[in-house]
Amino acid sequence: MRQIPLWVYVPAVIGICFILIGPLAIIVRMPWGDFWGSITSQASLDALRLGVLTAVVSTLLCVILGVPIAFVFARFQGIAVRVLRAVVLLPLVLPPVVGGIALLYALGRYGLVGQYLDRAGIQLAFTTAGVVVAQTFVAMPFLVLSVEGALRSAGADYEQIAATLGASPTRTLWKVTLPLVFPALTAGAVLAFARALGEFGATITFAGNLPGTTQTAPLKIYLDSINDPIEALPLSLVLMVVALFVVVAVHLRRSPAVGA
């Protein structure tokens, strides 16, 4: 077992307590008598149902669009690719509300692209589709990073061997590369789903907070917290448990560290 200086345990314990105090406070202050009735109310069920449905769709979009992006970033170098990579990963550090404003001015009814979509009868802002767009915008970088890292670690040796055996690039992709990075792809998709399910800032800015149409669970929690903070606790606990499940599921897929 590796030796750790004793003083390291002090900030480690403080940091762990800092993270745990919030969830613990929710559990302690939870109105358990009203818990089941709160999370099974029609408003809560509608918000959860809409959140899960849009998160699933946005995760599929992240896979469809993000995996090809990860392949490009992993297999090509150069200034242009680095700049594009920085742009794609921008939602990771961009305040979500700024992302929502960007989407609004890009895809809103009078936006840069949205004005042409509106003329074609396609409206994204303040619709359920807008929720999917906002979720995909903030969640895609998680999948791209996961798959790109796996591709870089795997290298291109197996792909080159498949090419020498006569496999086409498409066949190599489906039969060799994707199976190699499938665990990372799964982990990235799970993280993207969790990020989409918990998305708030970009969603409320671009899609609004319309019950039954664009109000997902985080938006309902926000509304409940304004009226009565205690009312926001049951649904908050549900999302916290989902997030914990996602983190545990992703980390369990990792191989245990080797060595003492």
Q: How would you describe this structure to a colleague?
A:
This protein has 260 residues and is an all-alpha fold. It has one domain (45-247): MetI-like fold, CATH 1.10.3720. The protein has 12 helices and no strands. It has helices at 9-29, 32-39, 42-75, 79-88, 96-107, 114-119, 128-154, 157-164, 169-197, 201-206, 217-227, 233-252. Helix 1 (9-29) packs across helix 12 (233-252), helix 5 (96-107) crosses helix 7 (128-154) and helix 8 (157-164) packs antiparallel against helix 9 (169-197). Keywords: Cell membrane, Membrane, Molybdenum, Sulfate transport, Transmembrane, Transmembrane helix, Transport. It comes from Gordonia sputi NBRC 100414. It is found in: Cell membrane; Membrane. This is Molybdenum transport system permease. GO terms for molecular function: ABC-type sulfate transporter activity; molybdate ion transmembrane transporter activity.
Query: What general outline do the C-alpha atoms trace?
Result: globular
**Annotated CATH homologous superfamily:** MetI-like
Structurally, the number of domains stands at 1
Kindly provide the radius of gyration, computed on alpha-carbon positions and rounded to a whole number of angstroms: 22 Å
H-E order: HHHHHHHHHHHH
Number of DSSP strand runs: 0
The CATH architecture assignment turns out to be Orthogonal Bundle
Average pLDDT, all residues: 88
- Beta-strand residue fraction: under 5%
Helix content: over 70%
Q: CATH first level: which class? A: Mainly Alpha
User: Helical element count?
Assistant: 12
Distance between the termini: 4 Å
Major β-sheet, in short? none
Q: Point out poorly predicted stretches.
A: 256-260
Quickly give the structural class.
mainly alpha
CATH topology: MetI-like fold
